[in-house]
Amino acid sequence: MEHHSHTHKRTLNLNGESFKTEKSLKFAFLLTLIILLIEFSGAVISKSMALYSESGHVLVDASSLLLAWFAQVQVRKSPSEKNTYGYHRIGILAALLNSLLLLILSLILIYESYLRLVHPEKINSAIMIFFPLISLFINTVIGIKIHKGIEHNLNLKSSFFHILGDSLVSISIIAGGAVIYFTGINYIDPLIGLIISPLIALGAFSVINETINILLEGVPKEIDFTKVKDEILKTPGVKNVHDLHIWSMSKSFRLLSAHILVEETAVKSSDICCIINNIQEVLAEKFNIDHAVIQPELAACSASEGFCIHKNL
Asked: Structural domains in the chain?
């Protein structure tokens, strides 16, 4: 006998979260396009290389948000015979690509800041201050909109770090422009850029590590493997648990499979179903594990032969 579960309420909740995420990404993408037009216009008027660089940064951000939006649309598609788990991993791949782009951008910003430090240029500092202020305001609106969902969705988390990176760059340009305006010291801006760019890289590394763990089907970092095993063993009627695997398809969709050795007295299907249901309820409530496949056994697993010996239940 083998028993599995989809927690229906959790599934509905996941679908609702997916739709909200899709709307947030669409909102962020459209506003980012507005920022791109503002930044590029400011760069043309002021002839500021900093604003030209920021325009390129925002262009990549817009592309990343478009990719994340597309991935989220795919996630809401129903599973098929070829893709029985659905399309959750598309979102993970998009988050990984976004973060890699962000990491590359941070390295480019460090290099450009160094060049501007070595070869400072005279620019229109008033324009350099004004246009990033508008962009900063819009980025703040976007950040507030998508921040609520970053704990449950890697695409939103990756996009949030993109927005944070944009905001930090805008602040550095505003601060640099103000100092240049009052003092004429042109190398202040690249110095700030050299401080901020590594922070963007750290945010990218955080998302990259998380996506790689999901793609390698590692145990989610929020879940303690030993605690899950102990909770299963606490269930009345369970003597042992083995072949326990915990992984996730996305940031918020967790799965588990396990073999449990049940008491010899629990020979009725109703008794075994009760044990399995109790386990699944605990897994859903305490660990937010949405899909649990439990295989009950009346005989221990033969480690030497590498397979399980079952009785027909």
From this structure: 12-215 (1.20.1510.10), 225-308 (3.30.70.1350)
Alpha carbons within 13 angstroms on the beta-carbon side of residue 110 total 12
| DSSP-derived 3-state class of residue 275 | helix
Q: Which helix or strand (DSSP H or E) is residue 260 part of?
A: strand 254-262
List strands edge to edge, sheet with 3-6. 3-6, 289-297, 254-262, 238-248
CB under 8 Å to 177, separation ≥6 — which residues? 125, 126, 128, 129, 132, 189
Query: Number of C-alpha atoms within 13 angstroms, CB side, residue 23?
Result: 9
What CA–CA distance (Å, rounded) separates 173 from 167? 10
Which distant-in-sequence residues (6+ apart) come within 8 Å of 285 by Cβ?
none
**236 class by beta-carbon count within 10 Å (0-12 exposed, 13-18 middle, 19+ buried):** exposed
pLDDT tens column, 112-125: 878 878 887 777 78
H or E stretch including 139? Answer: helix 125-147
DSSP symbol at 251: S
Q: Which of 105, 22, 116, 9 is nearest to 66 (CA)?
A: 22
What is the CA 101 to chain-centroid distance, rounded? 14
For residue 200, pLDDT beyond 80: no
* 99-111 pLDDT, tens digit each: 888 888 888 878 8
State the pTM of this model. Answer: 0.71
Do residues 100 and 162 make contact, with C-beta atoms less than 8 angstroms apart? Answer: no
Distance, in Å, from the CA atom of 73 to the CA atom of 44, rounded to the nearest integer, reads 36
Distance of alpha carbon 252 from alpha carbon 84, whole angstroms: 18
The answer to whether the beta carbons of residues 111 and 56 sit under 8 Å apart is no
